[in-house]
């Protein structure tokens, strides 16, 4: 029986990975239970496992601008530690990365082989993590880039929109940043399919299909939550200046799935409707966090 280890298991994706792997031999470790920056602890934890999934991450994008060393320790060195341990123990290694490894200035979807060119500190640390993992365990590392994640198990944009609707008559959302809203439930299921298919190691893009602006995504969230979508009004990025620069175009191409004989993830609109039926849009101030 395949034995799985999930690092960052208390996070939004980590929780959905546990659901997707229900009934299998899974060791689920939260950040408190496994410090990925401690190589000796990581090597000891990975022993006896066949698959290691890294859902741990420093995800505070704006804070990373002034705490890049801390972000690098988790996103780069922590990822390398897990890759080294997986290589040492003969395990396959899946690490979750981000659209932020690109410059955000493209006009067509980024292919998996597009050169990394991050535009902020968070992106730099995640790009370094990719490079270190692929170097440490080239034949057994799967880098799966994702973006715009939302799910039941943690704070996220979709839940924030529903929460704001309770206290604001209208909500202004930027319409000049385009990407791919992605449900962690779908991403978790896709990761399991990737592993079950014994697909080639390498880089994959784990986002729901299609594109949307944050404004369009917010309107869809309102609709799925039974709220009037016209309460969402468009604005532009200049109205929301933040420490870390955000990509204006953040759409990822899905060519690697076809090469591996797998279907890419479904359209984001279908995923959102399904997520809403599963109660994902219900706000819960006590939701756990701790991973991507």
Automatic annotation (TrEMBL):
Report the pathway entry.
Carbohydrate biosynthesis; dTDP-L-rhamnose biosynthesis
| Biological classification of the source | Bacteria, Bacillati, Actinomycetota, Actinomycetes, Micrococcales
For this chain, one GO molecular function annotation is: dTDP-4-dehydrorhamnose reductase activity
Keywords (alphabetical) are:
NADP, Oxidoreductase
Q: What is its EC number?
A: 1.1.1.133
- Per UniProt, what is one Pfam family of this protein? RmlD_sub_bind
What job does this protein perform?
Catalyzes the reduction of dTDP-6-deoxy-L-lyxo-4-hexulose to yield dTDP-L-rhamnose.
Taking every annotated instance into account, which residue ranges of this chain make up the domain RmlD-like substrate binding?
4-276
List the protein's name: dTDP-4-dehydrorhamnose reductase
Domain of life the protein comes from: Bacteria
Q: Which residues form a coiled coil?
A: none
This protein's species is Leifsonia williamsii
Q: Which family does it belong to?
A: Belongs to the dTDP-4-dehydrorhamnose reductase family.
Spell out the CDD domains in the cross-references. dTDP_HR_like_SDR_e (cd05254)
